[in-house]
Automatic annotation (TrEMBL):
Annotated ranges, domain Dihydrodipicolinate reductase N-terminal: 5-145
Reaction(s) the record says it catalyses: (S)-2,3,4,5-tetrahydrodipicolinate + NADP(+) + H2O = (2S,4S)-4-hydroxy-2,3,4,5-tetrahydrodipicolinate + NADPH + H(+); (S)-2,3,4,5-tetrahydrodipicolinate + NAD(+) + H2O = (2S,4S)-4-hydroxy-2,3,4,5-tetrahydrodipicolinate + NADH + H(+)
Pfam families according to UniProt: DapB_C (PF05173), DapB_N (PF01113)
GO molecular function terms noted in the UniProt entry: 4-hydroxy-tetrahydrodipicolinate reductase
Official protein name in the record: 4-hydroxy-tetrahydrodipicolinate reductase
Enzyme class: oxidoreductase
Database matches in SUPFAM superfamilies: Glyceraldehyde-3-phosphate dehydrogenase-like, C-terminal domain, NAD(P)-binding Rossmann-fold domains
UniProt keywords, alphabetically: Amino-acid biosynthesis, Cytoplasm, Diaminopimelate biosynthesis, Lysine biosynthesis, NAD, NADP, Oxidoreductase
Entry-linked PROSITE patterns: DAPB
Family: Belongs to the DapB family.
GO biological process, alphabetically ordered: diaminopimelate biosynthetic process; lysine biosynthetic process via diaminopimelate
Ranges where the Dihydrodipicolinate reductase C-terminal domain occurs: 149-284
Amino acid sequence: MKSLNIILLGVAGRMGLSNLTYISKHGDLFRLAGVLEHVGHRFVGKKLGEVFNALTLSDYQKEMVVVEQLEQLGELHDQSSAVVIDFTKPAATLAHLEKLAHLEKAKKKNAKLKWVIGTTGFSDKQKEVLMQHSCERAIVFSGNFSLSIALLMHFVNQAARVFPDSDVEVLETHHREKKDAPSGTAFMLADAAKKGRSALGMDAELVCGRKGSDAKRKKEEIGLAALRGGSVVGEHSVCFFSDHDQIALSHTAHSRELFSVGAFQAARFVASCESGFFSLQDVISDKLAN
């Protein structure tokens, strides 16, 4: 199998480090084509071998310099075979996409960089902008790149249909440093339940947290709650409450490497696409069909 060129955005972050570690272990499948960090970051201008000396990097990876902008990678960012794996912030993701679109248009390049986005915290309006960019380039977008979560979403959707009278609640727990709440994954799971109810002709409303003296649960609600503490990688549970019993569908992440596994599988998938907006469900759809 031919190695796939990968450009990592946010290389100094938690997921950036996980993705760099993953690619250093799978050099036969993926080739590191560039690494970026935000403007002014202390790693910018330094070689990977200097700032990640604890990792087992190949010689060419050690010599690679962290840059701020895609155009600093020279012609690498013009390769149609290259895929960007992006775990940064919404504003950074959109800024890179917008600038790259202008560069490609100015150079009249038909080959478009493909994009895998694991960034969370996008507003509805920002997601609409991502959708617009997907008309010109292939994008895989997911709030969680665990293949297990993709399967869990399938189960949640089915359970919402099988138990139409149950009360659905989503609970998630993450490390103290996570900024957005509830997590992107919690919304993905809640949306999977909502789509299951919608298939039955039922409307559901997502409700984030409850407080006050008049917070009684409405029947059509799908509740979301978030806990923050310690160094928890990620825990998600979707509970279906009836008057007679309770079913909980849960997932616990023990390391961030599982997200890298999914992100790089998504990179393989999107590399063969010209344009379009895809989810992790699309990446594993052939497995679900069987």
